[in-house]
């Protein structure tokens, strides 16, 4: 995976070549990613779905993250990013089902790991249930939270939110749970990034 070839860009989104995934994160090159947020409406309430990253992940294990996301390889288009949805959470949908939220750039620095992304962000209005998700080994669970509560968390209006969902245990069965979590349970994307995504989702509800 570290030898995957990714397109790299300057600060103005001009293409400047290709580098390995390892080089991209070590040297801090801008690169392209695909993000898809699932949202559902149940009895008049919007719920945002989040993935729980596996405890075996090199980066940010056991933290909550975007429903499905990943890098775009050097030979891939944005539409090819759809494979991340199938690969990570086992949901088969078409590109036409997605609502584009634009390209959002952000930078995340953690010791010797520099993540500078031009994220192609999409929203999927889902009618799926927890039973429809089939997870790969890098994703250990799926949860949902009230979207308004998620927004209040990142805009500093509440300290914790309630999540409900399932985690895959060692023998492969789904264990359902419910708990309250704060910001520290989420991958530390920039707060500005979370706020931008929230505003763009609100515009499309």
Report on the structure:
The protein is of the alpha+beta class and 205 residues long. Helix content is 17%, strand content 43%. It has a single domain (5-203), classed as Alpha-Beta Complex (Nucleoside Triphosphate Pyrophosphohydrolase), CATH 3.90.79.10. It has helices at 21-27, 83-89, 147-154, 191-203; strands at 5-9, 15-20, 30-42, 45-53, 64-65, 68-71, 99-110, 113-125, 139-146, 161-168, 174-181. Strands 3, 4, 5, 6, 7, 8, 9, 10 and 11 form a 9-stranded mixed beta sheet that branches. A two-stranded antiparallel sheet has the order 1-2. The radius of gyration is 17 Å and the shape is globular. The model has no long low-confidence stretch (mean pLDDT 95).
Quick take:
This protein has helices at about 20-25, 85-90, 145-155, 190-205; strands spanning about 5-10, 15-20, 30-40, 45-55, 65, 70, 100-110, 115-125, 140-145, 160-170, 175-180. By secondary structure, it is an alpha+beta fold.
């Amino acid at each position: 995976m570290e030898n995957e070839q990714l397109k790299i860009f300057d600060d103005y989104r001009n293409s400047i070549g290709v580098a390995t995934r390892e080089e991209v994160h070590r040297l801090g090159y801008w690169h392209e990613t695909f993000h898809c947020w699932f949202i559902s409406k149940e009895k008049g309430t919007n719920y945002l779905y989040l993935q729980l990253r596996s405890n075996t992940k090199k980066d940010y294990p056991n933290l909550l993250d975007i429903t499905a996301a990943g890098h775009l390889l050097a030979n891939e288009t944005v539409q090819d990013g759809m494979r991340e949805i199938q690969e990570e959470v086992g949901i088969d949908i078409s590109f036409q089902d997605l609502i584009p939220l634009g390209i959002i750039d952000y930078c995340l620095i953690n010791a010797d790991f520099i993540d500078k992304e031009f994220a192609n962000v999409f929203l999927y209005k889902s009618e799926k249930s927890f039973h429809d998700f089939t997870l790969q080994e890098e994703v250990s669970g799926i949860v949902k939270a009230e979207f308004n509560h998620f927004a209040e968390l990142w805009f500093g209006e509440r300290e914790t939110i309630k999540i409900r969902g399932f985690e895959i245990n060692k023998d492969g069965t789904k264990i359902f749970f419910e708990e309250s979590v704060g910001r520290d349970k989420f991958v530390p994307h920039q707060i500005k990034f979370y706020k931008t995504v929230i505003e763009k989702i609100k515009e499309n509800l």
